[in-house]
Amino acid sequence: EPGISRRESGRIFMEKAESSISSDIPIVIYRINPDGDGLKIALYSSRSPDYLVFARSDTALSTVSAPEFLLITYEKRIKDAENALSARTIKRMVKGLVHSRQVAAMLVLADR
Q1: Between 20 and 30 A from 38 (CA), which of 16, 32, 58, 89?
Q2: Apex CA 47: angle with CA 23 and CA 20, to 5°?
Q3: Beta-bridge partners for 91
Q4: CB 69 within 8 A of CB 26
């Protein structure tokens, strides 16, 4: 079933992304609507709501206070995220789909 396959792709993406980091590292969902795909990402995540942050703008992303975090965004927003976090080291981790939208997970490390 195509619908099941699309749902599974998002779950598998989040499993891969979360398995690559420690369970105490927060997840920042950048410029993904919390009422749409952002909600799906949050539901697919095994993290408690305390470890999920929605950053709706470049300013919100650049002011995330965690020393390191996993950034989830649409692939088309990667350059925007890199620009907003230009003082940080970013390591690309996983690419995948949430339904039919291409998304990426990147580990953001402490300030350079």
Answers
A1: 89
A2: 45
A3: 107
A4: yes
Say which residue the tokens 């992303």 belong to: 61
* pLDDT 10s digits, 48-66: 999 999 999 999 999 999 9
CB 69 within 8 A of CB 84: no
Own/partner contacts of 76-82, CB < 8 Å, gap of 24 or more, are 76/102, 77/30, 77/31, 78/104, 78/106, 80/31, 81/30, 81/31, 81/106
> Which region, left, alpha or beta, applies to residue 48 given φ > 0 means left and ψ of -120 to 50 means alpha?
beta
* Residue 40 near residue 86, CB atoms below 8 Å: no
Task: Check pLDDT > 60 for residue 106.
Answer: yes
What does the block give as tokens for 48?
A: 């408690």
CA 48 from centroid of its chain's CA atoms: 15
DSSP string, 43-91: HH--S-GGGEEEE-SHHHHHT---SSEEEEEEGGGHHHHHHHTTTEEEE
